[in-house]
């Protein structure tokens, strides 16, 4: 396993800036998720790290050694793709053994390694089947076993769970995490699914338009999103954004709008702000350190374990509230809602950056 450092990497396809100056340092043995919307450059960054794509500019280092011009086969990197990409004409055991055969590993060692990888992926009883005799989930396990069998320095996974049904995806998430704990190979995992990113990554790099916007632990990204984009991309349902005016009153500062006055800890130095608050930090009951206001129920989504309430506040602005359990509300019903002040985020509407208090 290796520490991976990407320095000022740019990759242009004609006029398209797929990667527009990427800097990231990935600790040896860690699990890092690249998260971002379609087209933001996630796959291109993976392909650059694997050597399948040549950089326009910049450098990639493994353990301090510049590997920018090294051929893919000399980097000792393994990839797992969304499409399982297992050889249909080979049995499972031959598929897994394939990378070792290429490296001319002795037969006995191949057998041992195939047993090791298939035990880890719980597919030992499938070794004599052909891929056509496997389910999608089993095929993806074979692809992962084949990727780890030669103990790569870096394991790259590009949306490996996208083709699986919802239940299996959730199961495989925890299995891949467990596998990583056992094998400890430096792993870079691409997804556009924020739940997958939050549950799997030691760290998440949130990307947009060829750039990394924020790189941090899931907790940092959830609790202190650096920009409006990150705040809106991570969390479900999405964070509520309320554009408000800044007013001062007796040396105190407030964000004012929608019938609300939110105390600010200091002068933000601008005339207006965007107040962000996650649906789970708004309640329909008074809580300590919260401020309340009236809103009318617009639409209710009952998920039984939680209830998502869409509300209209002043100026017909809609906000979304998530409360635990199965709560009944009628359309147009008036409710008192409360914002938990410690969980409020403040953004600059021009730069879209977070303002720290
Ligand atoms: N070979 C190519 N030729 C031209 N443009 C390309 C090529 N590969 C990627 N691009 C462009 O580069 C940008 C980044 O693409 P990339 O596939 O890396 O995004 P992504 O984040 O992985 O998206 P997705 O989640 O949809 O797979 C896109 O605008 C894409 O159209």
Topology of this protein?
Blueprint: E1 4-13, E2 16-26, E3 31-35, H1 42-50, E4 57-62, E5 65-66, E6 77-80, H2 92-102, H3 107-120, H4 136-148, E7 154-158, H5 166-183, E8 186-191, H6 194-200, E9 203-208, E10 211-216, H7 218-223, H8 228-233, E11 240-249, E12 252-257, E13 260-264, E14 272-277, E15 282-283, E16 290-302, E17 306-312, E18 318-324, E19 334-340, E20 345-347
Parallel strand pairs: 3-8, 3-9, 6-7, 7-8
Antiparallel strand pairs: 1-2, 1-4, 4-5, 9-10, 11-12, 11-14, 12-13, 14-20, 15-19, 16-17, 16-19, 17-18
The protein binds adenosine-5'-triphosphate.
Description of the molecule:
- This protein is α+β, with helices and mostly antiparallel strands and 357 residues long.
- The chain has two domains: 4-229, 3-Layer(aba) Sandwich (Rossmann fold); 240-347, Nucleic acid-binding proteins (OB fold (Dihydrolipoamide Acetyltransferase, E2P), Beta Barrel).
- It is built from eight helices and 20 strands.
- The strands form four sheets. The chain has a six-stranded mixed β-sheet with strand order 6-7-8-3-9-10, with helices on both faces. A five-stranded antiparallel β-sheet has the order 13-12-11-14-20.
- The longest helix has 18 residues, at 166-183.
- It is elongated.
- The two termini are 40 Å apart.
- The relative contact order is 0.12.
- The mean pLDDT is 93.
- Bound molecules: adenosine-5'-triphosphate.
């Amino acid at each position: 396993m290796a520490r991976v450092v990407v320095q000022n990497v740019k990759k242009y396809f004609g006029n398209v800036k797929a990667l527009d100056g990427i800097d990231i340092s990935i600790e040896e043995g860690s699990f890092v998720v690249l998260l971002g919307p379609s087209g933001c450059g996630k796959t291109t960054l993976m392909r650059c790290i694997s050597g399948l794509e040549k950089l326009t500019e910049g450098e990639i280092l493994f353990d301090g050694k510049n590997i920018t011009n090294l051929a893919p086969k000399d980097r000792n990197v393994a990839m797992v793709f969304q499409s399982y990409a297992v050889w249909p004409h080979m049995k499972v055991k031959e598929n897994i053994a394939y990378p070792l055969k290429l490296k001319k590993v002795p037969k006995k060692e191949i057998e041992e390694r195939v047993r090791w990888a298939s035990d880890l992926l719980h597919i030992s009883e499938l070794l004599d089947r052909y891929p056509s005799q496997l389910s999608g989930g089993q095929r993806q396990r074979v692809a992962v076993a084949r990727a780890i069998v030669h103990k790569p320095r870096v394991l790259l996974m590009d949306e490996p769970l996208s083709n699986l049904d919802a239940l299996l995806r959730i199961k495989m998430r925890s299995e891949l995490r467990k596998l990583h704990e056992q094998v400890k190979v430096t792993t870079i995992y691409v997804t556009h699914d924020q739940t997958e990113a939050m549950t799997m990554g030691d760290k998440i790099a949130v990307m947009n338009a060829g750039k990394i916007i924020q790189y941090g632990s899931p907790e940092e990204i959830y609790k202190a999103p650096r920009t409006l984009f990150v705040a809106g991309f991570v969390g479900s349902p999405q964070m509520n954004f309320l554009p408000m005016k800044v007013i001062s009153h007796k040396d105190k500062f407030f964000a004012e709008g929608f019938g609300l006055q939110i105390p600010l800890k200091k002068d933000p130095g601008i005339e207006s702000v965007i107040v962000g608050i996650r649906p789970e930090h708004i309640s329909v009951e008074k809580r300590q350190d919260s401020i309340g206001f009236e809103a009318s129920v617009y639409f209710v989504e009952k998920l039984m374990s939680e209830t998502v309430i869409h509300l209209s506040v002043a100026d017909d602005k809609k906000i979304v509230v998530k409360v635990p359990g199965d709560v009944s509300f009628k359309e147009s019903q008036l409710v008192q809602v409360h914002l938990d002040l410690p969980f409020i985020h403040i953004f600059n509407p021009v730069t879209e950056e977070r303002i720290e208090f």
